[in-house]
Amino acid sequence: MHLNGHKVDCRYRFSLNYFKGAGRGHGEGIEASWAESKQSGGSTRQMNHGHLHDTLNDFHNYWNWTKLQGLEKTQAETAERSTSSGTTPHAWVVHSGMKIQIKQYTQICAVPTIEDHIEATNIHVEAEDEPLYLPSDFLPDKHASLGLTAMAEVEYQLREGKANDAVTSLCQAIVHGMVLLKTKGQHSCWVYQNTRALTYINNVKKRKAAWASRYHLSRTKILCLSGNTLMDNSPPLLDQDLFAKNAAGARGLGEGSKTDSWIWTFRKLKGMGNNEKTSFVMETEKVQWFRACANMEHWIEEVEIIEEEFRHLVHGCEKMEAVWKELSKSLQKADMYQRMATDARKCFLKAGGQWPSADETFSEHVRRRRPNLTIDWDGLKD
Question: One Pfam family of this protein, by short name (predicted)?
Fold first, then answer.
């Protein structure tokens, strides 16, 4: 957060997201104890300097002790997370029906074979719920008897096109919203300008919700036409999918733990050859690729850092055990640190951690366990 107060050039040059060996360090972790330490103000504000320092030292020592007691469990959970996505009559009828569904109007169906179904319709139904008698309004096993097989194929293709258009427009709305937010922060001042800017931003949010709703409708109809079979080409659209990393600006807080949604590659490569796909990806996703590569390297470093912290925890507990055995006749503290060291060893092994062998240094151990990150660029081009 401190780096966000500097100019953009500093955010690129000094960001921990690109520093070798930084891992996924929590830069704001040092501030976690401030809220608790401020509660001691009522009793420390009348103290002299010496008494104040001693009291705050006792407070933070207790804070560190409580962290140490649960450290092996927390590190084990973190390690597990770190190691573990030509117009035809049929086409005209279907397309007209879809337009009416979006605008919530009614359609007079002119297909003779479904006249009986129209007569049986409840006349008191709400306009937006009135069926339009498109092939997607019938079960797939009735398409042949009603003469809707050819029309069902046409509707399926049009629904796919509508879903693709909805996702494309949704991506544009998300990018538009990011640009508006950035512009608002840079140029909008006072109440009048902020109000005008929020009006535009809220309009983009409404468009984004509308395009998401259109995709949901298209996907539902595609499922009806395919017999409710699961489709890899049209996955469900969740709220967390409406997100994108801003490639035009500096890294945002928390972006390193997120991945881009499937909507940004949705059917963009469909129908392309291998060379075209490679060229498309190389040209359009360079920035995101390099950021993802940096994220991958930092997650590998984070696993290595957590493993070394585990080893330090075990060595620290064993050292404290030896100190208490030497300084005190009571073995209560020594036994406590012995149990902590034993529990930490068990959690470390359960999470897949290893210790360096006797004939290798720590650097050699890390290099031996680190996965191969070499990329065959010539092979990708071929």
Answer: KDZ
